[in-house]
Amino acid sequence: MRYYKSHYNYNKGERNMVKNIKRPHRKIYYTKDYDKFKFLPRNREIKESHVKFLAYAHESPIEGNGNRIPIVVKWSQDRMNLFILEGQHRKEACRITNTPVSYYIDEDMDESDIAPLNTSQKPWKFNDYLKFHNHSDNPNQETYQNIQKMMEDYKSFMTSKICLCLLNGVNNQRLHNQSFKEGTFEINDLKEATRIAEELKRIHGAMNRNIPWFKFSVVYMKLRKEKKFSFKHALKNFTKNVDDYRDISGMIRFKVGMVDAYNKRLPLNQRINPPINDE
Description:
- By secondary structure, this protein is of the alpha+beta class.
- It is built from eleven helices and nine strands.
- It has helices at 48-56, 88-97, 114-118, 126-133, 141-153, 160-168, 173-182, 190-206, 213-223, 231-240, 251-263, and strands spanning 5-9, 14-18, 27-31, 37-39, 62-63, 66-67, 71-75, 82-86, 101-105.
């Protein structure tokens, strides 16, 4: 990081550095008073492994004079503490290496900026967004509480992709993944999603071989819409005839294999005949 002007504030025992940037000048401060920084409850959990990586990796962003990329903070209402908006892992890495924390104060930002700020460093994962939006300040909090409950109740097989498909449908997966990140995700039918999750749980428990579970779940949700579909037949035939589809690549061919597995040894009047290419 290139600095064009610097000076020391001996009264506070901290070094202030001013970076020459096109935006209004921001003072960048250095301090070893680690306790002056506080974490916001909506921010993601601290991961010790990432803190150690930042502290000790060969190309660590932590140098002898502090972290190269300053953390972003804002004052608390009483101006007694600084809340970290971005950079909480770097702050902890500075603590364990006993190096100064570089930071700048941005009063124009608030908690709603946490996710966009943090994804510019270590990308956020599903659980990070889930924690961020499952907060009383979010009018859509109940939706994220239901997502978290779904993930916990069916953790034996549930993944983030399966969960979002169950709650919002298998179509437009990119769109509902984006809405999940933005905090605007909507649940179509929670009761129906729970019923399907219960069925998938029973099938998963009866399986004695590994299968591509996301593909299976997506195709299952589609086949379940067929009028002649029977969960009794599905439970029996999908587990018994798993070799008909388990190792097939490609969603369309996988769906054909699942249809064949479902229909095997069934009378013609009980078989399903869904459209295959309905992507």
